[in-house]
């Protein structure tokens, strides 16, 4: 037991004063300090994943690149790098892969979880909104609470299949005002939406659709795109597909809308604030969970690499009787032998 603990201590906290190690490794033959490497890799992943998840912008991207360059410059000044210790050849792709993986996960969390939450909570709250109101009056809406005569007409819903999802829509109507285009009633301004929660025709069961007393919703918007987001997130968002579903529902059920391109999409919910908080927590848990999983994996991977090369270096130099000159280090049968 004591021997195992000593070995673990030697891996994570090597003693530079050990004369045997000094003889075997030489003045610059030590491998990269394992705790320093793990700190750089884990902090890189956590920092990039967190920043991009909650703020996808040019400034964020520049900060992430600066961090990677800083750690790269810091590592290039170590003795292991100058010595050409073989494990540093693996550290470069692992470091780059870490940054790319963190960016990928951050973009997914930002686009699919955090941005829909942020756009809804950043909008204005409106109470007693008539379902027949003009869309221009509520273009900046976040949470909308409709009047008591409002209802969700699930019998006139439609499901549009695209990109492995069913995009569901149902009109928000007034119980006292007809909506047929041939009548004197107004056109549809608000549509409840959701994914994979309806049939092709009718059977709309998204969020609080089955609760007759629900008259609330929060807006569903696609984020505005710039050159950076166009490059990193080339998809056009969900709104164009919801609009296709709305167009089909209008034709099928004889509905009309005053402004087809500016209809307001909402998620129908009994407690919009509570659902939005769940989305916020989900984004935090996604970042935290990804960071924990990555940390566990990289500790196992890099510790294994460190132990392997450290053992091979010790065996190789022991067979030669003295430490090889720079550029002539032997690692037994390792594929990383230098010529």
Q: Outline of this structure?
A:
With 339 residues, the chain is of the alpha+beta class. The protein is built from 9 helices and 8 strands.
Provide an overview of this structure.
There is one protein chain. With 339 residues, the chain is α+β, with helices and mostly antiparallel strands. Strands 1, 2, 3, 4, 5, 6, 7 and 8 form an eight-stranded mixed sheet that branches. Helix content is 50%, strand content 13%. The protein is built from nine helices and eight strands. β4 (158-162) and β5 form a beta hairpin.
Question: Structural class, please?
Answer: alpha+beta
The structural domain count equals 2
Mean of the pLDDT scores? Answer: 79
Question: How would you spell out the order of helices and strands?
Answer: HHHHHHEEEEEEEHHEH
Q: How far is the first residue's CA from the last residue's CA?
A: 40 Å
Any chance you could write out the topology, listing elements then pairs?
Elements: H1 2-12, H2 19-25, H3 34-54, H4 58-76, H5 79-83, H6 87-122, E1 124-129, E2 141-146, E3 150-152, E4 158-162, E5 165-174, E6 190-195, E7 216-219, H7 227-232, H8 239-253, E8 264-268, H9 272-320
Parallel strand pairs: 1-2, 6-8
Antiparallel strand pairs: 2-7, 3-5, 4-5, 5-6, 7-8
Helix pairs in contact: 3-4, 3-6, 3-9, 6-9
């Amino acid at each position: 037991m004591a021997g195992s603990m000593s070995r673990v201590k030697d891996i994570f906290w090597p003693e530079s004063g050990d004369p045997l190690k000094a003889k075997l490794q030489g003045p610059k033959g030590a491998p990269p300090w394992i705790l320093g490497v793990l700190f750089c890799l884990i902090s890189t992943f956590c920092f990039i994943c967190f920043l991009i998840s909650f703020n996808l912008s040019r400034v964020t991207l520049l900060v992430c690149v600066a961090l990677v360059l800083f750690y790269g410059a810091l590592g290039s000044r170590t003795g292991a790098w100058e010595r050409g210790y073989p494990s540093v050849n693996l550290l470069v792709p692992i470091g780059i892969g870490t940054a790319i993986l963190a960016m990928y996960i951050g973009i997914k969390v930002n686009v699919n979880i955090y941005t829909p939450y942020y756009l809804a909570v950043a909008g204005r709250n409106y109470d007693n909104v008539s379902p027949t109101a003009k869309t221009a009056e509520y273009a900046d809406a976040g949470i909308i609470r409709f009047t008591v005569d409002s209802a969700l007409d699930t019998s006139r819903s439609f499901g549009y299949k695209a990109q492995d999802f069913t995009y569901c829509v149902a009109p928000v109507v007034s119980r006292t005002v007809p909506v047929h285009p041939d009548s004197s009633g107004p056109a549809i301004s608000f549509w409840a939406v959701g994914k994979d929660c309806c049939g092709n025709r009718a059977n709309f069961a998204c969020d609080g659709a089955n609760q007759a007393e629900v008259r609330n919703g929060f807006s569903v918007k696609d984020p505005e795109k710039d050159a950076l987001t166009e490059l990193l997130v080339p998809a056009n968002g969900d709104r164009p597909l919801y609009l296709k579903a709305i167009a089909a529902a209008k034709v099928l059920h004889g509905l009309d809308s005053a402004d087809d391109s500016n209809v307001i999409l909402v998620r129908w919910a009994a407690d919009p604030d509570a659902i939005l908080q769940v989305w916020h927590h989900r984004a935090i848990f996604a970042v935290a969970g990804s960071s924990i999983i990555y940390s566990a994996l990289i500790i196992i991977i890099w510790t294994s690499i460190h132990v392997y090369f450290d053992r091979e270096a010790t065996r190789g130099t022991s067979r030669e009787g003295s430490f090889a000159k720079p550029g002539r280090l032997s690692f037994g049968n390792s594929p990383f032998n230098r010529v």
